[in-house]
Design brief:
- The chain is mainly β.
- The chain has three domains: about 20-95, Immunoglobulin-like; about 105-230, Ferric Hydroxamate Uptake Protein, Chain A, domain 1 (Beta Complex); about 235-795, Maltoporin, Chain A.
- The chain has a 22-stranded antiparallel barrel. Strands 8-13-14-11-12 form a five-stranded mixed beta sheet. A four-stranded antiparallel beta sheet has the order 3-2-5-6, with no helix packed on it.
- The longest helix has 17 residues, at about 1-20.
- It starts with a helix and ends with a strand.
- About 40% of the residues are buried.
- This is Iron complex outermembrane receptor protein.
- Belongs to the TonB-dependent receptor family.
- It holds the Pfam family Plug.
- It is found in: Cell outer membrane.
Length: about 800
């Protein structure tokens, strides 16, 4: 009897083992489009899967029986159905759009659509997550068309930046959920203030050229329109850790409640990133969080986003002198232990979007950003008169120079509101948007001496300069797409923008900068889109943008005596788009004609600071190509190429002349020269290989042509062309104890190229031999990027 029972138990175990089955299927929309990343769960079993790039899913090792299968996807109604296992059927799950209002309209007003006649790319959450191991957004966008990215510390953590079509960050408009992000005064975006923000981004649209009307700083070369994470219907938790070269590490925790009572959802993220940097002492200690909560009704959504970042970054701003590149590429002139940039920034966004009847949608948002911080500097043997201080008398000795430590502070508030209203006609031929915003910036700039080598008649926290700036920026735009025929669409976009900028106080060079400037701009845009067939279209557009000077253009120049003029850009875009199941490409040409572009010329103001001046005539002319092709089920190849010509008709260079007893500046006229930091060739090539299921290997290549450091087109003042290659491994597993586990390894610069994507230069005359009795000295400084280095991360999704 015992033997019989044992054999029976053994047989039942074997039978149960062999009775394990797999369940396979595909998730599609009602129109047949494969849905990537849909959640598929066997209710009550703890087993589940997510759909892959082809919409396919598979749940393994399921005991025989009848189960409830739940399939959900953002923006679609969840579907529940009974399934029996085992089965040989490949399930087809079709999801219909959700009755709940989605969040896409939050960014709709400031984005281009498929029918907008302008040049743009979209970077999805999946594209971002495959590279996101803690590096900043400029590094993650490095392989998109016409982009050149760089890092002060050389490894993508800390101060980073990017240029698009040669336009730097001050000419690239950035919005987050339609809300301006650019600093109102410098027009820059300091990504270091938003550590690990990419982990809370759903998608980014990059418009090149003037693009469509938006809020905030002028789009004067490109725009980045960022949408943060949208609602997740299912509860989730995510833990993400990565480590790499230069003691780089990132730790992130992210949680979400999913949809509660079919109406409420809450999400949160907490991140910490640290790195020693490639450059000596270029360390970063970064912290951030992102909180979001919202009400999701059938016709209305109300959402609150609160996110903040805090950074302490050792300064690597000076770059490496050219003469040290061959022997000490990691040189940093700063050695004082607290030579840091210390800044905090908090963002608050209250967003509403809703539908009114079948034709109208509306969006409105209130926002507030609070920033405060300083950078600290040790200044050896500095002049006291630079701080408005008399010499310090010790006994009979008068000391006018000494070591000091100073802090320069910025304490600012930025707040306002944006809105948009969208009307779509009953027949769908007219899609019109009315939108705009009004914002105020209030910034306090001041400096302190916190230590002196010899005690003087000053107290700690005494301010040696203090000035306040208030900037009001208002805009309104109306844009519409109208279907003229079955295939032809007309587009129009009119924007008015008004700026009132007021200064009051003493600047850091002890000059009174009190004054006021006002601007009123009209920015029209129009174009046509022609759909040749499904997935094929031509487009062409003409757009105008106007841009006010930045803060330094006013504070470095007397506003009344020598006020800089605003810049003007006229932009023509034309292209062709092709989209099919296995093949897609875009081809476009552009012409960007500038009037009164502001550039550094070497000219000095009355206290010896370099100022920018307007140049009458300059332009950018180029061709851009990008596309991807699925060669087989395992191989996909993609890339982009930009060829351009970027010229200034006439440029006046001012050179300091120290060859005589009396200082002077010599003026040299240059004609038809290349615009600084505008390579004629920028390209990327990406090869993706999937040798087995859930493993993806990618080879990422980037080429950037020669860049000139100034507008003289002098090769002695330039950055060499470079080619880099990175290797990325992504492997996804689905162990029973988590919903998904993903391992990513990124090996950057696998061929150990020595390259520098950024730098600066200045030249001057010194006494020397020759007929003129002088010699020209040029000093170049570069920001070297790291050789071969790696980052590796592991992500758990629950």
């Amino acid at each position: 009897m015992k033997k019989s029972l044992f054999l029976l138990a053994f047989w039942l175990m074997v039978w149960a083992t062999y009775a394990q089955s797999n369940l396979r299927g595909v998730v599609k929309s009602a129109t047949g489009e494969e849905l990537v990343g849909a959640n598929v769960i066997l209710v009550g079993t703890g087993r589940g899967s997510t759909s892959d790039l082809s919409g396919n899913f598979q749940i393994r090792n399921i005991p025989s029986g009848t189960y409830t299968l739940r399939v959900s996807y953002l923006g679609y109604e969840s579907q529940v159905k009974e399934v029996s296992v085992p089965t040989d059927l490949v399930l087809e799950i079709f999801l219909t759009p959700s009755a709940l209002l989605t969040e896409e309209f939050i960014v709709y007003a400031t984005r281009a659509t498929d029918l907008t006649p302008t040049t743009f790319s979209k970077v999805s959450k999946r594209d971002i997550s495959r590279l996101n191991l803690g590096q900043d957004i400029p590094i993650l966008l490095n392989f998109t068309p016409s982009v050149v990215s760089f890092s002060d510390a050389g490894a993508g953590v800390g101060y980073t930046g990017l240029r698009i079509r040669g336009s730097d960050q001050t000419r690239i408009n950035v919005t987050v959920n339609g809300i301006p992000l650019n600093d109102a005064e410098s027009h820059g975006v300091f990504w270091v203030n938003m550590p690990d923000f990419a982990s809370s981004v759903d998608n980014i649209q990059i418009q090149r050229g003037v693009g469509t009307s938006t809020n905030g700083a002028a789009t004067f070369g490109a725009s980045l329109n960022i949408q943060t994470d949208t609602r997740q219907d299912e509860a989730y938790a995510e833990i993400d850790n990565s480590f790499g070269s230069f003691n780089t590490r990132r730790h992130m925790v992210k949680v979400g409640t999913g949809l509660i009572n079919n109406r409420w959802a809450f999400d949160g993220r907490l991140s910490r990133i640290a790195s020693d940097g490639y450059i000596d002492r270029a360390s970063s200690d970064l912290r951030s969080y992102f909180l979001s909560g919202g009400y999701y009704g059938e016709k209305h959504v109300v959402k609150l986003n609160v996110f903040a970042g805090a950074e302490v970054t050792y300064q690597a701003w000076e770059g490496v002198p050219e003469n040290l590149l061959a022997t000490n590429r990691t040189f940093n002139p700063y050695t004082y232990d607290n030579q840091v940039d210390d800044y905090k920034q908090d963002h608050y966004q209250l967003i509403y979007t809703g539908t009114f009847g079948k034709n109208w949608k509306a969006n409105a948002a209130l926002h507030y950003t609070y920033g405060r911080g300083f950078f600290e500097q040790f200044r050896p043997n500095d002049r006291l008169n630079r701080y408005g201080l008399p010499p310090v008398v010790v006994g009979e000795t008068s000391i006018s120079r000494m070591d000091i430590i100073r802090r320069r502070w910025l304490d600012n508030d930025f707040y306002g509101g944006v809105f948009s209203m969208n009307y779509i006609s009953d027949d769908g031929r007219l899609d019109a948007v009315l939108g705009g915003g009004i914002n105020r910036y209030d910034g306090d700039h001041f400096g302190e001496i916190i230590w002196m080598q010899f005690a003087g008649n000053t107290n700690i926290r005494d301010r040696y300069y203090d000035n306040v700036a208030v900037k009001d920026d208002a805009n309104i735009y109306a844009k519409a797409t109208y279907q003229l025929t079955d295939r032809l669409f007309a587009y129009g976009d009119l924007q008015g923008r008004w700026i009132d900028y007021r200064f009051d106080g003493i600047n850091n060079d002890l000059r009174d900068v009190t004054g006021q400037v006002k601007f009123a701009f009209f920015n029209p845009k129009f174009g046509f889109t022609y759909q040749v067939a499904e997935g094929k279209q031509w487009y062409a557009s003409y757009a105008v943008a106007n841009r006010e000077p930045v803060r330094r253009d006013f504070t470095d120049s007397p506003i009344i005596e020598r006020a800089p003029k605003h810049e003007n850009l006229q932009n023509i875009e034309a292209g062709f788009k092709r989209q099919s199941a296995n093949f897609s490409y875009n081809a476009n040409i552009y012409y960007m004609k500038y009037r009164d572009q502001l550039v550094l010329t070497g000219q000095l103001n009355d206290v010896g600071a370099y100022v920018r001046d307007n140049v009458d005539d300059s332009y950018r002319l180029g061709i851009e190509l990008d596309g991807a092709y699925r060669l087989t089920e395992k191989f996909t190849i993609g890339g982009n190429l930009a060829l351009s010509r970027n010229k200034i008709a006439e440029f006046l260079e001012y050179l300091d002349d120290y060859s005589t007893a009396e200082f002077r500046q010599e003026v040299i006229v240059h004609q038809n020269t290349d615009i600084a930091f505008s390579p004629n060739v920028v390209g990327a090539a990406i090869l993706d290989y999937k040798p087995v299921k859930n493993l993806e290997i990618s080879l990422l290549n980037k080429y950037v042509g020669r860049q000139f450091l100034d507008n003289t087109q002098n090769e002695a003042r330039s950055l060499n062309a470079f080619w880099t290659s990175d290797l990325r491994f992504n492997y996804a597993l689905r162990p029973r104890f988590v919903k998904n586990m993903e391992v990513t390894v990124l090996v950057n610069n696998i061929f150990n190229r020595l390259y520098e994507p950024n730098g600066y230069t200045f030249s001057y005359f010194l006494p020397g031999e020759g007929v003129s009795g002088r010699e020209l000295v040029t000093e170049n400084f570069f920001y070297p990027q790291a050789g071969t280095n790696f980052l590796a991360g592991i992500k758990f999704l629950f």
